[in-house]
Structures are given as C-alpha cells and as structure tokens.
From TrEMBL:
PANTHER family, alphabetized: ACYL-COA DEHYDROGENASE, ISOVALERYL-COA DEHYDROGENASE, MITOCHONDRIAL-RELATED
Gene3D superfamilies: Acyl-CoA dehydrogenase/oxidase, N-terminal domain, Butyryl-CoA Dehydrogenase, subunit A, domain 2, Butyryl-CoA Dehydrogenase, subunit A, domain 3
Protein known as: Putative hydrolase NrgC
Domain Acyl-CoA dehydrogenase C-terminal, residue spans: 219-349
Pfam family, one: Acyl-CoA_dh_N
Length: 370
C-alpha cells in the first residue's frame, strides 16, 4: 500500500493546495485513492479488501498524513470503517462495499434513534463530523434502539436516505468535508444494522476490537503523520534558507539540529508507544476471558500522548523556520492548523489522562468512556 501511495503521490501533492479552498477532495484525488484501495484497508480480503493488520493500518495512515493531513484523515476514516465488512452479513457487506468507489462516512458525534419495524428499523437523527461526506456512498451513524434501552447500533444508510448539510467551515482539516447529515424516519433493513460491539462475521482480531477503541484507532495516528511531514518539509526546504538577520542557513544551525533531533526522538517514541499499546490490546482481545480495561486505558493514553507530542513538534518546526511558516504557499502553515484540529478530536482528548490517572489510583471509572 505504501508503494501504491507513492505512485499517486504526485497527483495528491499537486492538488493539495486546493483542498482548503474547496473544503473537500477533488473528484480526481478521491478517485485515485479509491482505485488504489485506500478506503478498503480493513475490508476482509474475501470482499476484495486489503485486510491489513492493525499495525500495518497505522503505518499506512501515518504515511498518508505525512504527505497531507486531509488525505491521512480520510484514509484513516474511510479505510478504518471498511472493517464493517467483517461485521455485516455477506450480502449486506457486498452491497455496501461492492464498488471500488464505495466510501462509508461514519459519525460517533451523536446518537440517533433506531425504532424496530417489520424487517428492519426506522432511523431518525442528525449527526456531525461525517468526514468525506461529499463523496460518501453510505453513512454509518450511531443509534440507540428504543430510547432508554442502552443498546447502541451502527446503521449503514445509503446516501439517498440522508440529507446532507454543508456546514464544514473551519480553520483546520478544511478539506475533509466533515459535513453533518440527517435522516428522518428512514427505513433500513435489519441486515444493514449491527451492534456497536458486534459479533464478527469474519475471522481476525481487527473485527473483535472494542468498539470505541476501534473508532479511536482510525484517526489517532494522523497527528503523528502530520508532525513527521512537517519535519520532512523543514529538512527538504531549509538547506539554503536563512532567517531574517541570520547569516547561517537553518539547516546548518546547531539549534536546528538539536531541535529536530528531539522532535524525531519524540515522534518515534510516541509512535512506538501507540504500537505497543495496540499490540497489547490485540493480545488481550485474543486471550479468552482477559480483562480489557487496563489495555483499553493504556491505548487511549497512548493516543492522547501522541497527539500532544505531534502538536508540540509541529509548533517547534514552524518556530525554527520563522516567518516563512506563515505563508500559505509554504508547506508549514496548514500543517499547524491541521494538527491542532486533529488533536481536538475526542479520540485524543486530554480527558484520557484523567481516566488513566484515576485508574492508576484505584478510583471509580465506571462512568468513563475509553
């Protein structure tokens, strides 16, 4: 997949300047990513997907985000939710993911209503942050079956069943097209609805990960990718660049060497922690009867830590490059906006440090979300 990405990289890089202005990917870029399989990363191989392992998925998303935060975000979201092919009945999965252009825009930002009806459910609600909405063929919101029941499901609504609201006017991650969408009493056959913590229809640990952890995982590696892209941009562009009033190029300054050395070590350490935490979570899932609480909390700590590291690294890189980082024509300014926006996602909330600390002290975490 890395090889495939490099083949289309010139197209992606050449059009990245348009993403903010258009507030979405171009049809050409979306088509290239679709055809190359980047929205099928976790789809079971039996359904024509890549069937990547959890760690390989993280590597691919991080690589994409290093080139462009918007690309990484949509590869993470689209490629991540393709794991639903391992939850749905075969016929339903083939209808959702059968075409190469299939893209599922998911939303966990609100909970709608799923009212049982003959042969299925009636779906009602409005949901925010449906990244990739302009190109989505299916929308997957969270719903509660019968208000007050506590049973939460994912409903896979076809595009024609929802109303799209183009309200994504933001500073960072502008190109992700993370629109709101709504449904009003839309009928959905039962085979297109699965529990938020489903019984998998395919083998593989990726389909048995805890629901919240699985959603977090689709985007949590994006900030680190953006940070690594910022480092790469500084290294490639600073050889002849001198800041105003300085005679030595940035690339020859000892301060720059020390700062980049620190940035690299911190990014690599944060990435290693994320991979270690994901490996431990997978091992716990595979171990029958294992208590997942500690592994889940550890993974969420790793995600929030990585986001904090990524924001810090991007800011330090931009400080090193100076006023040049303010120019929209340079590859620095948008990375700062994008990494700040990505780190604000609830998947990487600083609240996880509170939960992790409380758990370490033996406190009550029964009402916490992790």
């Amino acid at each position: 997949m890395i090889e495939r990405f490099e083949q289309i990289r010139p197209l992606l890089a050449g059009q990245s300047g348009r993403f903010d202005a258009d507030r979405r990917l171009s049809d050409e870029v979306f088509g290239a990513l679709s055809e190359a399989g980047f929205f099928r990363l976790l789809l079971p191989a039996q359904l024509g997907g890549c069937g990547l392992s959890p760690l390989d998925f993280m590597t691919v998303v991080e690589h994409a985000a290093a080139v462009d935060g918007t690309i990484g975000w949509l590869v993470g979201n689209g490629g991540g939710i393709s794991r639903a092919g391992g939850y749905l009945p075969l016929d339903a999965a083939q209808k959702v993911f059968g075409k190469p252009s299939a893209f599922v825009a998911s939303s966990t930002g609100a909970i709608g209503k799923a009212v049982p009806a003959k042969g299925g459910y009636r779906i009602t609600g409005r949901w925010p942050f449906a990244s990739g909405a302009p190109h989505a063929t299916t929308f997957a919101p969270l719903c509660e079956v019968n208000e007050g029941s506590g049973r939460i499901v994912l409903a896979f609504l076809p595009r024609e069943a929802v109303n799209l609201i183009d309200n994504w006017h933001v500073s960072g991650m502008r190109g992700t097209g993370s629109w709101d969408f709504e449904a009003d009493n839309a009928f959905l056959p039962a085979e297109f609805v699965c529990d938020f913590q489903p019984n998998p229809t395919h083998a593989g640990v990726v389909y048995r990960l805890p629901g919240i952890s699985a959603f977090v995982w689709t985007v949590a590696t994006v900030p680190l990718g953006i940070a690594k892209g910022a480092i790469d941009a500084l290294i490639s562009l600073s050889s002849g660049h001198r800041r105003q009033g300085m005679t030595v190029p940035v690339a020859e300054r000892e301060l720059a060497h020390a700062e980049i050395g620190r940035c690299l070590s911190q990014c690599r350490a944060a990435g290693a922690y994320m991979r270690s935490a994901m490996s431990a979570l997978c091992a716990s899932v595979e171990s029958e009867g294992s208590d997942l609480v500690a592994a889940r909390i550890n993974y969420r700590l790793a995600c929030s830590h990585a986001a904090e590291v990524a924001v810090s690294v991007v800011l330090r890189v931009n400080d090193l490059i100076g006023a040049r980082a303010l120019a929209e024509s340079q590859p620095f300014e948008r990375r700062e906006r994008d990494v700040r926006a990505a780190a604000k996602h609830i998947a990487m909330s600083a609240e996880q440090f509170v939960i992790g600390g409380r758990y370490a002290f033996g406190g009550d975490i029964s009402g916490a979300s992790f």
